[in-house]
TrEMBL record:
<dbReference type="Pfam" id="PF08241">
    <property type="entry name" value="Methyltransf_11"/>
</dbReference>
<dbReference type="GO" id="GO:0008168">
    <property type="term" value="F:methyltransferase activity"/>
</dbReference>
<keyword id="KW-0808">Transferase</keyword>
<dbReference type="InterPro" id="IPR013216">
    <property type="entry name" value="Methyltransf_11"/>
</dbReference>
<dbReference type="InterPro" id="IPR052939">
    <property type="entry name" value="23S_rRNA_MeTrnsfrase_RlmA"/>
</dbReference>
<dbReference type="GO" id="GO:0032259">
    <property type="term" value="P:methylation"/>
</dbReference>
<feature type="domain" description="Methyltransferase type 11">
    <location>
        <begin position="52"/>
        <end position="138"/>
    </location>
</feature>
<protein>
    <submittedName>
        <fullName>Class I SAM-dependent methyltransferase</fullName>
    </submittedName>
</protein>
<keyword id="KW-0489">Methyltransferase</keyword>
<dbReference type="InterPro" id="IPR029063">
    <property type="entry name" value="SAM-dependent_MTases_sf"/>
</dbReference>
């Protein structure tokens, strides 16, 4: 039986670059949202003229589209991810720009007929609206309030759930930017961690779950989680996701 220290060491040594979760195979599971974001995004990219993926991570999801539009661009803020994304998107002819998550997008107004984003840390709705062409679409799968709260509480104790990631706030922000929300769906998804090494790797990779997480600072809490997994078979948490689709009104023709 692998010891607590060995499991923690494995989780601490695993690379966190990119947005590939294959390392968790056999060690953790998470339900997928019923709407199938990757499939939806792939269909729209196949018919787009110019597509943009905001906060692409390592470009893994975008790289799986069946057909790339004539112009394909992506942004990413974390330099190690930028390098991974450029490798992943090169076969599609995609160009990756290093852009801070809260910065203006480095594109002219009305540059894209499709903008997508999976799990953005924040959404600059004003910039999304600016770079969309009239009649264009923004499609995004976002993280909802209270995602993985069980892990956060296990590490940090009781903390407010917050409201920043409320889907209805996203709808209001989209409308304020001049977009029309045409689809909003929500889901709660069961996640299970089967060893504490998977917990360590997840907290290192998904850094907003426990801000400032380090193994040294949270060793006692990790040991408690380890004992809970040994007793119960898994640590169960719930992720919240919502899908939002918004369009930019088309220009009206002459009367």
């Amino acid at each position: 039986m692998t010891s607590f220290d060995e499991l923690v060491e494995e989780g601490a040594a695993a690379p966190v670059e990119g947005w590939d979760f294959s390392w968790f195979a056999g060690r953790a599971t998470e339900e997928r949202p019923p709407w199938g974001y990757a499939r939806l995004m792939g269909r729209r990219m196949a018919t787009a003229e110019a597509g943009l993926d905001v906060q692409t991570g390592g470009g893994e999801v975008l790289a799986a589209i069946p057909e790339a539009p004539p112009r394909l661009a992506a942004t990413e803020s974390w330099p190690p991810n930028v390098a991974v994304a450029r490798r992943n998107l090169a076969p599609l002819g995609g160009t990756v720009y290093e852009v801070a998550d809260d910065a203006d997008l480095p594109f002219a107004a009305e540059s894209f007929d499709l903008v997508v984003s999976r799990h953005p840390t924040l959404t600059r709705w004003d910039e999304i609206a600016r770079v969309l062409r009239p009649g264009g679409t923004y499609l995004s799968q976002q993280i909802g309030n209270g995602t993985m709260r069980e892990l956060t509480v296990a590490m940090m104790g009781p903390v407010p759930a917050g409201t920043a990631r409320d889907p209805h706030r996203a709808v209001a922000a989209a409308r304020e930017a001049g977009l029309t929300v045409v689809n909003l769906r929500e889901a709660a998804l069961r996640a299970e961690f089967f060893d504490v090494g998977a917990v360590v790797h997840f907290l290192r990779k998904v850094i907003w779950t426990v801000p400032g997480f380090t193994v040294e600072a949270y060793r006692d809490q990790l040991r408690a989680v380890h004992e809970r997994i040994r007793a119960e078979g898994a640590f169960v948490a719930w992720s919240r996701r919502f899908l939002v689709e918004a369009t930019k009104p088309a220009l009206r023709g002459p009367a």
